[in-house]
Amino acid sequence: TMEMPLNGRGLILCLICFLLNLSAALEIPLSVQQVPTIIKQTHVQVAFPFDEYFQIECDAKGNPEPIFSWTKDDKPFDLSDPRIVVSNNSGAFKILNEGHISHFQGKYRCFASNKLGVAMSEEIDFIVPGVPKFPKEKIDPLEVEEGDPIVLPCNPPKGLPPLHIYWMNIELEHIEQDERVYMSQKGDLYFANVEEKDSRNDYCCFAAFPKLRTIVQKMPMKLTVNSSNSIKQRKPKLLLPPAASGRESSVIILKGETLLLECFAEGLPTPQVEWSKPGGDLPKGRETKENYGKTLKIENISYRDRGNYRCTANNLLGETSHDFHVIVEEPPRWKKKPQSGVYSTGSSGVLLCEAEGEPQPTIKWRVNGAPIDNHPFAGDVVFPREVSFTNLQPNHTAVYQCEASNIHGTILANANIDVVDVLPLIQTKDEENYATVVGQSAFLHCEFFASPQAIVTWETADEAQPLEGRRYHIYRNGTLQINSSSEEDAGSYSCWVENAIGKAAVTANLDIRNATKLRVYPKDPRVPKSHVLELHCESKCDSHLKPSLKLSWRKDGEAFEINGTEDGRIVIDGANLTISNITVEDQGIYSCSAQTLLDSVSESIQVTVLDVPDPPENLRLSERQNRSIRLSWEAGNDHNSNISEYIVEFEGNREEPGKWEELTRVQGEETEVVLPLAPYVRYQFRVIAMNEVGRSHPSQPSDHHETPPAAPDKNPQNIRVQASQPKEMVIKWEPLKSMEQNGPGLEYKVSWKPQGAPVEWEEETVTNHTLRVMTSTVYAPYDVQVQAINQLGSGPEPQSVTLFSGEDYPSTAPVIHGVDVINSTLVKVTWSAVPKETVHGLLRGYQINWWKTKSLLDGRAHPKEVNILRFSGQRKSGMVPSLDAFSEFHLTVLAYNSKGAGPESEPYIFQTPEGVPEQPSFLKVIKVDKDTATLSWGLPKKLNGNLTGYLLQYQIINDTYEIGELNDINITTPSKSSWHLSNLNATTKYKFYLRACTSKGCGKPISEESATLGEGSKGIRKITEGVNLTQKIHPVEVFEPGAEHIVRLMTKNWGDNDSIFQDVIETRGREYAGLYDDISTQGWFIGLMCAIALLTLILLTVCFVKRNRGGKYSVKEKEDLHPDPEVQSVKDETFGEYSDSDEKPLKGSVRSLNRNMQATESADSLVEYGEGDHALFNEDGSFIGAYAGSKEKGSVESNGSSTATFPLRA
User: DSSP letters along 970-988, please?
Assistant: First the structure.
């Protein structure tokens, strides 16, 4: 077996177990001859009428096996009655419930005997209860005068307790009891004084015997109450106890039972009953008064409760009392119970037998069931409380019985005297295996029986020397305890038991395991309320103990359910404990326990739940002043998180009543503050506490405090002007808030005069916060003041601010000096500034309007679409970008201020030169063969000049990192829209690039990829846009092997004869079918195909990785070697360095040239120029302007700054 030592408190329990083992070691094994011992018996058996039979138990052990006999009422009882069934393997028997069995009632004893002695059971009481019945009787009606007392007797029949009595009417409704009406313990119904409502003819007494499942009813009684006109009051008179018992009576109660004393008095008015204990107090905590004080109940009565108890009944006319003398008695109980013993020949012994009880029990001795006087042993000395014997011999073996009895009962004890001389018998198995953990105690058992007494020694298998030292302890029952075990203690041990007859030995094996360790984390967490808490229990135990490892969680010592709570808020998953939506109730000590076969360990942490503080309480106002007040409060519960600060709020704004505003904040250690106040406010305060979790609810508001009015303390701020008409000043300011007005009747005094003029101030007083003033001059400076006044006076002296009267439109236009063409899409405009006096306001900047009039390519007129670009500040030049190349433009310049724009200058006409074209609109490979390809393309959307031809380039790519040499073809026919390439490699992937060219150079390329066909293959490359491919493929039936068929693909909405393209498909007939079928079913062919597919997949993966690393096609390299001179000049002169990300791919990148490169950007998509801090294209190399992209006049001026990030190309 595996021995599990416990630590701490468990060690005490372990020692108790060993003391029990010690007593068990004194028991004689059944293999040794011994006297009988009663091991089981019935004490009381009730013959319930609904049971089939009644079992009387008696069982005993002994060697030789005992023989059983019975007595009934101290006379031999014959078990031969046919209704008695005797058990075969014990002395028990059962009485069958057949016919009348009342003659079986009585007190039984069981005797178990063998050649060595006789054991005797305690008395067994067999009760045959009768069926309780009320006697059939005629009950005369009762008649009584109103106000008189009456008693309705019940006299219930006798039966098996407990007995419950109820008074009800014929409808089974309970008779109501109160201070006037009372049912005694015997069941009689008492009336202190009757009333008319007590008249009824169906007073019924019911007696219930629950153990018998029986309820019986007494015949109904009739009570008539005659009304009386003169009801006389009278003083109390006791009905319970009855008058015959006198003023005092005695009550006998057994110790430990419940004492019930009752008093009931008649009288008018109804008497009240009180209880007392003369010379002492009623026992507190154990006494209760029931039934409106008429019953005194004392539970678990003891000897100290003996004495007199008094009940006193009183009303307005007097009182009466009765004393109960309580006598506490007790059935016999053992003080010293005789103990069985094993003795060797020649030894001596004493049997002690003492009992307590009230009255004092008498002691009787028996030997083998008979009085000791009838069968004395030589050498026995018998006293009332002890029997002693000397020089015991084997024939002295017997069973002694001690019986103690008084009037309340009898108790009996058997004491076995076995005189035995045997060799030690070790009852623990040999080669038993034990285990414990490092640091714990190990217990190796060696239970034995020996007579005479034996000596136990333990040895290790390696050394034939007894174990000695403070770490080893041998108990009397043979168990060896090894304290603070270590790995060195593992091994085999021998237990030797030796007495005068001889010696015996067994071997025990001990294994030492590593102790289990635990760690719970996080350690002592602090968790805000409503958050989620996750606890983890990390365990480490010996590998041999891991299968038995069980983890469990507890909170404050109480275990959780296996998986947590039913609602899922607490979830336990082995070593993890998760609590969702944590509450204050979840706070406490959490412990994780690990239990194995050999040890247990536990670790605890403190979980603290944080919450917002409770609101502050008891707000008080003191030191009330006109401009200040002291507010104090008491802090609420901080819920485990210190209060960091308090927020003091006030309410009293006359414009927004009920709105609370923050007034000040106070450090969390403070609970009072002096608050600054404003005049003319009816204040009310509240306080909010804050901690690391959040804010508390606001406190209850304080009392009101009202401050008197005063003159304003400040004047309006943010005085400004707003004018929509020339010479107009609409003066505006921020009005004083309600809390700043300081009193009733708030007004504003506005003063103004021309700046620097020696004239008087003009004044006007208004109640709102705006004033319209007309002046004599356009955009002239004025000194303006605004002062607050109320009924109690004026605010402080106001400060002057400078405001300007309303502006008018500029009256003159700038003169354009010239337009310098930078390149085909960009020009620089210069103009002269307008005179300051004609601006009529603050000059905001200049605006350029331009529009295209015609294209120089075809000479066609262009509808007028005006574009606007604004330049803020004192500017005399600006750049106009995003123009159409090879076109004619008109351009005007105008000045503008806050009012708006002035007149335009005379239009200036200029033309833009040719530029490079945009990329072709499309490029398609319309036909491929093994060594040829046919390409088709469309014209660029913008030619930007006279088209001179195309530059066609192509190179091998084949989806590998390396790319082939770039080949150039110059196409000098502008009208050409397709090209046939020859001398290409078969089964090779190519990339094609096409640029459109003018005299200024070639534009951005458009690209396309395609692969040539293999040997013996023909066909078109793919179907272009416009063809709707269905998901189903319909096979074409081939009529003649080797024949050529033309397949024409048609769109649904084109004409019948308009094919997109056509090509020749070479077909192969059925003559090859058999060959292919044969090959496709061959295993070598299938394996070869799988290998090729795998290699292809690997190559594609490597290729994809290589391509993603990026590269650079040589197309761009050529472009870098031959840049557009016009573009390059713009880069150098105007823009500085810029990077065109579309034209500088990484080296080897296939996708870089595949992107759709845009030519000159249109004006509609241009990012805003101008109005920026770093102006775009100023004379020093930056460009300034706000390009609005508008098509008409009057575009809104752009605010803020932006930087141009677009590419500009010629």
Answer: EE--TT--EEEE-SPPTT-
Identify any residues that bridge with 85 across adjacent strands, giving them in sequence order: 94
- Kindly report, residue by residue over 519-561, the tens digit of the pLDDT: 999 999 999 999 999 999 999 999 999 999 999 999 999 988 7
Looking at 982-1135, which runs of residues are DSSP E strands? 989-998, 1001-1002, 1006-1011, 1044-1048, 1062-1066
- Judge contact between 926 and 934, C-beta under 8 A: yes
CA distance 103 to 899: 131
Is 1081 a residue whose pLDDT tops 70? no
The two beta strands, 221-226 and 570-573, are unpaired
Torsion of CA 234, 239, 245, 251, to 10 degrees: -130
Preceding amide of 5 cis, omega within 30? no
CA pair distance 239, 54, nearest whole angstrom: 45
Other C-beta atoms closer than 10 Å to the C-beta of 417 total 24
For Cα atoms 682, 683, 689, give the angle at the middle one, nearest 5 degrees: 165
- Pair 77, 71: CB distance under 8 Å: yes
Q: What is the largest CA-CA distance in the chain?
A: 159
- Condensed to tens digits (0 to 9), the pLDDT of residues 772-826 reads 999 988 999 999 999 999 999 999 999 999 999 999 999 999 999 999 999 999 9
Residue 631 in contact with residue 685, Cβ under 8 Å?
yes
Distance CA 552, CA 563 (A): 10
**pTM listed for this prediction:** 0.50
Structure tokens at 369: 């069931």
Per-residue pLDDT, 718: 93
Residue 364 CB partners (closer than 8 Å, separation 6+) = 371, 402, 403, 404, 405
CA–CA dist 1113, 1157 (Å, integer): 15
HSE value, Cβ hemisphere, 13 Å, CA-based, for 489: 27
Q: What are phi and psi of 1043, to 5 degrees?
A: -75, 155
Beta-carbon contacts of residue 924 (< 8 Å; ≥ 6 apart): 935, 936, 937, 1008, 1024
Helix, strand, coil in percent for the chain, rounding step 5: 10, 45, 50
Query: What is the token pair recorded at 614?
Result: 């409770």
Q: Compute CA distances 510 → 513, 567, 645, whole Å.
A: 10, 47, 65
Distance between CA atoms of residues 1033 and 1024, nearest Å: 18
Percent of the chain with pLDDT over 90: 68
Return d(Cα 762, Cα 800) in angstroms, integer.
13
Structure tokens at 1077: 């079928």
Q: Which residue has 């080296």 as its token pair?
A: 1147
Q: Quick one: which H or E segment has residue 1075? A: helix 1073-1080
Q: Strands across the sheet with 472-474, in order?
A: 442-444, 480-482, 472-474
Residue 478 near residue 25, CB atoms below 8 Å: yes
For residues 36 and 113, is the Cβ–Cβ distance under 8 A? yes
**438 Cβ contact list (under 8 Å, min separation 6):** 485, 486, 487, 512, 513, 514, 515
* Residue matched to tokens 């006293």: 383
Q: Quick one: DSSP state of residue 581?
A: S
Residue 753's pLDDT is 93
